[in-house]
Amino acid sequence: MRIGILTGGGDCPGLNAVIRAVVRKGVKAHGHEFVGFRSGWAGVLDSSAVELTVDSTSGILPRGGTILGTSRTNPYKGDADGTELVRRGMERVGVDALIPIGGDDTLGVASRLAAVGVPVVGVPKTIDNDLNGTDVTFGFDTAVQIATDAIDRLHTTAESHNRVLVVEVMGRHAGWIACHAGMAGGADAILVPERPFDLDDVCDHLRARHARGRSFSIVVASEGAHPVEGALTTKGAQVDEFGHVRLGGIAAWLEREIEQRTGYESRMVVLGHVQRGGTPTAFDRVLATRYGVEAIDALSRGESGVMVSLRGTQVTTMPLAAALAEPKLLDPDLYATAEVFFG
Predict the structure, then answer these.
(1) Is 11 an annotated catalytic residue?
(2) In 12, 15, 204, 300, which residue has its Cα 20 to 30 A from 282's Cα atom?
(3) 18 pLDDT exceeds 80?
(4) Which residue in 68, 76, 67, 65 sits closest to 110, CA to CA?
């Protein structure tokens, strides 16, 4: 077969490891040919592609980002006939099947294509770790390590200045990064999308901590965290081609409100894109490699409409439709464990 690979949505560490694994196993074990579509689904629609070989993908294992580029292009935006557009793009470069690497939006497109007969095997990618079809997504471990390192460094400056530091991390719908990094970094409060918070309770918690002689605090908040009164206003906010509002601003709001309500000097730190930049951890390199190998093996076995998945210690496949049915939210038991150490 001649197979097209693409990376869609936000970049994250481990994408290049998947590309390398797919190509190397596909060429050496199955005799396939590969092309890489540039900039996600945009490259498929435009037939913008580059040949991928064992030599051209050599040395990319430790590199962050994606050598193919990425975008949030939606072939089905508006009333577009995305299926026909994708098929034409594939035909122009002689591609028989697709391996898209991405999150729920990228794989949502893949699921629609598979439903009408396009051969496709998806690889799950999101640093938020909120894809329900797999125990862990690659990139998550790297993001948690970066956030933990930042929190470790912020402890000393918070203590030196007797400040409350609010650290905003990624996590639109799920608080996996905030919870893991907050636990690992010894945060004094963790705010996540799954648990709307009462700011008065948060401030009381910080006051109690200060009353015990602790003159500084670290608050970790997911970008999608929100108070019980409702989400922060997004009126006029930008949206992507899949209709997602651009998030951000919770740390600035918390900084202002905490300082006004408690009198404690507060500062915010937004980690932003640094969480998904740079080289992947060893765990993410290995997981991404295993995903890539299983993806090309599954396609070679004739599977389609499936996504590779980590279940326990085994990498297997599961139907895309089932994997995308609902997001994987933060485990309440894990959050309960984190709460033991607040303050």
Answers:
(1) no
(2) 300
(3) yes
(4) 76
